Structures are given as structure tokens and as C-alpha cells.
Amino acid sequence: MIALWVFFPVCCRKEEENSRYNRFTVDESIPLNDTVKRLSKYPELQLYNGERIESPARTAWIIQQASYSDGLFPALSFQFADYKCNARYSKDTMDILLNNYNGYFGNGVLVKVFKDRFFIRDIDPKTLKGETKFIRSVPAYQKIKLHQASFEKGDSIYGFIDYTTRIDSVITKNFKGYFKTIIK
What we know:
Elements: H1 2-19, E1 22-23, E2 25-26, H2 34-39, E3 60-68, E4 76-80, E5 84-90, E6 93-99, E7 108-114, E8 117-123, E9 134-135, E10 138-146, E11 156-167, E12 171-182
Parallel strand pairs: 2-10
Antiparallel strand pairs: 1-8, 3-4, 3-12, 5-6, 6-7, 7-8, 8-9, 10-11, 11-12
């Protein structure tokens, strides 16, 4: 009887952990998309003067639409389009960073990919140089498409993100677009 009681919480914890991750979609046609082809025609963004550019071509075309509404005043809306992509593979997890870090603070998302699943975390815009902090958010919709199902260091990665979330009950964030990079 004791063995069943000990096994049950471990089993449920594993199931709860897997439910945090959504499945990503494989779309082999992403590298042929017009937006992805255009990325190769433009130089990578330089977000601050001393930044070391890692890619000769632009790595992301993502639009973030953020709106703020506290119910007392008309909604304010902001749009950002200066994002870059960076991907790292360690052990069995790939981290895809879609960010516009300017040397002092950043704004974007971190996509963690594990097997055929993903999890998105919002980067805290108040993050200072050398820090990586995340903010609590409540995803309303999240979709990731990648051009293949498995990856290794040195592979090229092409993808699409469509992500909508609420932050602090007054900020809504929609993050949508294409990205490409080489996995480090």
C-alpha cells in the first residue's frame, strides 16, 4: 500500500510537467517562405554600438504588438519589430531566444524545445546587462512551427512563432513572425 502511495505522486508530477509543454508543428516549407527568403537579403540588426554581430543576414522578422489597458484610460498600443534569433542546444533541450536586447535591457521570449514539445517564457524588459530574468505571464495562444523535428549543434533552424499572452492583467502581448539561425 505504501509503494502505491509513493508511486502515485511521482507519476502525477511527471504528467503535470509534460502538460506544461505544447507540441510544435513540423512544416518543411518554412525555408521556402517569402519572409524567410527576405531575411537573407538584409543585414542583421545592430541594436547597440559595441555589439558583436554573429550573423551576416537578418535572423528574425517578428512583430510584437503590446497593449496596455487598466480600464480607466483608453488602451495604449506599442509595436516592436527589432528582434533577433539565437539558438543553443545543450543535452536534449534547444533554447531559441527571440529578443531585442540593446546592451542594457531586453524584451522578447525564450522558447524551450524538448523532443516534439515546446514551452515559452517571457523575458522581463527590466532585465539589466548580464542578467536573464523572466516575468510571469498567462498564455492565451501559442503555436510554434519548425522546419524539422530533430536538431543538433551546427544545424540551421527555420521557424514561425504565434504567441499571445497576458502580463500583469493589464498588458496583452502578441508576438508573431519568422526566424532562422544556426544552432550553437
